[in-house]
Inverse folding.
């Protein structure tokens, strides 16, 4: 290339970049039309709340659909570490003294968006869809997603027009909290008329009772909801909300800066500081999100308790949160997140102590460490930056002589590999997950749910823990249940069955004119208080 | 001509059959189970087995494939495993969106690249020739992803002229004008590489033609430069250019995947990406079939056009 042209080319590129750098602040205020536009990190699953999986989908579905029991998400994390339960479509409930009979008193005068009245029959119809194999409305998908909620149900019965009785085979202290969950399928109530009319295509015609009504979905482009002016609760301020999937983080940031959207999910950690200095608002909470490792209890090294303890003590959680993830997470000091019931902070087990870690390895004749394998994904929902985080752990463990070989797979392949349980030679498997219910601990560590039967992928089994969790599950008194859950948390920490690493803060970036958005201690949010004022 | 088109149509059917078989087998080999994907981290052996039965994944592979093929012959592309909707409902609108983007990019390519190549060839080694070829070379080497972000940075964020992403305004979805405003930047980004290739190709074909005797004769007989270049020169250069354009459409269809991701364009590429990561076999198969179909049809058009433009090729096919 002749020099003259080369410099011409360089000059034009530089000019272009200069225009980019000079941010155009001359544009007038954004015309929002009082419609709240949210850029989400991936395309949502179907709009059938009982069948859809994943937090991304539930964040949308819960604006249209409501469960019997809900959580109050208008209180920010720093005021309520665990979101309090509140009545949803059940106005109130009575639990029998033996903890087996739940009488749900259904809210009167509520209609689904299609005009179908909400009553006990509609609720029973929905529960049978998720639970009753012999009923015509049964859906294997809905049942698969919600199996942990309905696990102990013996019968469901309409008592009168506004009362539903759910009878359990054994007391289940976390039943009400589990009814509020939505990460792995939810128990939100759908219009039975819509279910009958549309059958398999019901997800294209989502009809619930929530503060927003479904208007339109163009796959990959937008999901449009409009305000439900007949909502039984507090009617939202905004006219509607549009969810736009923008999988690319840079595209999301650009859309926020240009005023095309009012809020973005999962901002690139590197862009947060700049956006804040430009006047955009950062909203963070403490959702029950734990990024953790399971140890393989059948591996020749990680089956040794001292080895697992040494690994837990060698990981630099503070360094990872501060340097690698730039404060978008907090170091994890408990096996569950702070926003989960039964949380126990165990700094003694999870704060870095290299000397003690080395001593522990020496005490089991492994002073020079050993080789092992850590499996994780390259991407995926809630995984943050899995490969870089695994490499950070690899460096930490190298300091005590443990030679970690990292194996990564793309998210969906990894999910399949993870669910099969750790194979010989694999010492640690990573996952990120969590619930506000401590019942999550049962799902992740119960000996009944060892892989491939369930998500206990490290084949952990401790009869004392199983008994403690059983006591917690069957406790009739909340304080007693909490006591057992805390004990269970302590047992898992003492056994070093898991290595909790960090808790995500679930950051969102909002345009300067948005107010009323609250980051509660959940993976999803309430939009009834949001206002757009300029 | 008819015979050519007939045999091409027959081979199209064979190509599509082969493509569906290969895609089906490839997806079976990749690890990952749609049932586990759907159920997520809370999956238990029992719920996975029940779901596999419901989705029909527990049947023998040949049974699954031939059932799919049977449906295909009746125009039924099956049901998506993860989205629980008919594949046609998902893919046809996506395919239409991709065609809009590809079509716009193609128009840009042809309208800009061909004149650029002709003028560059005419003013060979001039500053214009060098500049346009340097820009083409740069265009062909720039990563589409980066170029897309640059366009967004300049025209959407700094100048605020055009929207950053999507197909319609999320707050006030408009009609054709709204679509056009959303189309400009992604079309430019998608057109960049093929535009450069077509421009360079046009230039080199034209350089050869302009050196030929009959051009000199035409010039000597006093025809205007415009007439020599565009009427006689370009007309003879068109067959290879049309062939290249036909082939570039294939690259365009492949390349728009990145553009669709950067600009949040709800097209086939974006859906394919999602569906591949979810192991949603029927959707992936439909996507690949659509792309194969589009590629084959457009090249059939290109071949036909070459036949019409160039009498010599017609004679050759009849012999």
């Amino acid at each position: 290339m002749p020099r003259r042209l080369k410099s011409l080319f360089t000059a034009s590129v530089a000019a272009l970049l200069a225009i980019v750098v000079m941010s155009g602040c001359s544009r007038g205020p954004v015309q929002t039309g009082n419609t709240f536009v949210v850029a989400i990190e991936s395309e949502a699953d179907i709009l059938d709340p009982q069948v859809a999986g994943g937090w991304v989908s539930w964040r949308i579905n819960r604006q249209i659909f409501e469960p019997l029991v809900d959580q109050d998400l208008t209180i920010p994390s720093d005021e309520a570490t665990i979101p309090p339960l509140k009545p949803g479509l059940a106005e109130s409930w009575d639990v029998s003294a033996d903890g087996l009979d739940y009488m749900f008193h259904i809210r009167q005068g509520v209609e689904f968006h299609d005009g179908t009245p909400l009553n006990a029959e509609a609720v029973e119809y929905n529960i049978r869809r998720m639970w009753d194999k012999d009923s015509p409305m049964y859906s294997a998908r809905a049942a698969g997603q919600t199996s942990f909620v309905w696990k102990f149900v013996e019968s469901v019965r309409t008592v009168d027009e506004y009362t539903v009785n759910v009878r359990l085979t054994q007391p289940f202290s976390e039943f009400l909290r589990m009814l509020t969950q939505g990460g792995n399928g939810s128990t939100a109530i759908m219009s039975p008329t819509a279910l009958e009319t549309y059958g398999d295509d019901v997800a294209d015609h989502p009809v619930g009772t929530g503060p927003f009504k479904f208007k339109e979905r163009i796959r990959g482009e937008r999901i449009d909801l409009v305000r439900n002016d007949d909502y039984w609760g507090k009617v939202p301020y905004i006219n509607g909300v549009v969810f736009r999937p923008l999988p690319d983080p840079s595209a999301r940031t650009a859309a926020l800066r240009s005023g095309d959207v009012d809020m973005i999910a999962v901002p690139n950690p590197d862009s947060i500081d700049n956006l804040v200095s430009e006047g955009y608002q950062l909203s963070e909470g403490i959702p029950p999100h734990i990024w953790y490792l399971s140890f393989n209890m059948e591996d020749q090294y990680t089956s040794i308790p001292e080895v697992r303890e040494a690994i837990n003590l060698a990981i630099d959680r503070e360094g990872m949160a501060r340097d690698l993830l730039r404060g978008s997470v907090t170091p994890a000091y408990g096996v569950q997140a702070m926003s989960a019931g039964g949380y126990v902070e165990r700094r003694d087990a999870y704060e870095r102590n290299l000397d003690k870690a080395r001593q522990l390895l020496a005490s089991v004749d492994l002073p020079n460490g050993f080789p092992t394998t850590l499996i994780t994904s390259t991407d995926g929902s809630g995984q943050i930056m899995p490969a870089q985080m695994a490499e950070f752990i690899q460096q930490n463990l190298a300091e005590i002589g443990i030679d970690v070989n990292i194996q990564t797979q793309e998210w969906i392949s990894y999910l399949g590999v993870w669910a099969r349980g750790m194979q010989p030679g694999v010492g640690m498997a990573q996952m990120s997950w969590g619930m506000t219910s401590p019942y999550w601990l049962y799902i992740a560590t119960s000996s009944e749910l060892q892989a491939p039967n369930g998500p206990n992928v490290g084949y952990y089994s401790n009869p004392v823990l199983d008994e403690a969790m059983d006591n917690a599950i069957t406790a009739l008194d909340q304080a007693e249940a909490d006591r057992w859950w805390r004990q269970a948390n302590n047992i898992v920490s003492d056994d070093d069955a898991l290595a909790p690493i960090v808790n995500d803060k679930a950051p969102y970036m909002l345009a300067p004119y948005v107010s009323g958005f609250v980051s509660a201690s959940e993976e999803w949010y309430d939009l009834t208080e949001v206002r757009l004022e300029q | 001509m008819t015979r050519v088109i007939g045999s091409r149509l027959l081979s199209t059917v064979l190509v599509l059959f082969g493509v569906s078989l290969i895609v089906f087998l490839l997806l079976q080999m990749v690890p990952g189970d749609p049932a586990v994907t759907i159920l997520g981290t809370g999956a238990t052996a029992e719920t996975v087995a029940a779901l596999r039965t419901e989705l029909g994944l527990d049947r023998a592979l040949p049974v699954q494939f031939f059932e799919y093929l049977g449906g295909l012959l009746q125009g039924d592309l099956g049901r998506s495993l993860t989205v629980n909707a008919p594949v046609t409902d998902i893919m046809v609108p996506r395919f239409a969106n991709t065609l809009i983007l590809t079509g716009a990019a193609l128009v840009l390519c042809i309208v800009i690249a061909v004149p650029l190549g002709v003028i560059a060839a005419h003013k060979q080694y001039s500053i214009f020739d060098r500049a346009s070829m340097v820009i083409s070379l740069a265009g062909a080497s720039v990563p589409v992803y980066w170029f897309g972000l640059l366009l967004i940075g300049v025209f959407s964020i700094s100048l605020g002229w055009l929207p950053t992403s999507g197909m319609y305004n999320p707050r006030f979805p408009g009609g054709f004008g709204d679509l056009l405003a959303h189309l400009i930047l992604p079309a430019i980004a998608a057109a960049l590489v093929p535009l450069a290739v077509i421009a360079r190709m046009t230039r080199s074909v034209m350089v050869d033609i302009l050196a030929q005797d009959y051009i000199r004769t035409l010039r000597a007989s006093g025809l205007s430069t415009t007439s020599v270049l565009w009427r006689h020169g370009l007309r003879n250069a068109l067959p290879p250019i049309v062939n290249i354009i036909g082939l570039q459409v294939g690259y365009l269809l492949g390349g728009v995947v990145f553009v669709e991701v950067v600009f949040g364009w709800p097209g086939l590429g974006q859906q394919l990406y999602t569906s591949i990561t979810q192991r949603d076999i029927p959707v992936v198969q439909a996507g690949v079939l659509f792309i194969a179909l589009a590629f084959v049809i457009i090249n059939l058009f290109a071949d036909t056009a070459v036949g019409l433009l160039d009498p010599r090729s017609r004679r050759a096919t009849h012999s």
About this structure: The mean pLDDT of chain B is 81.
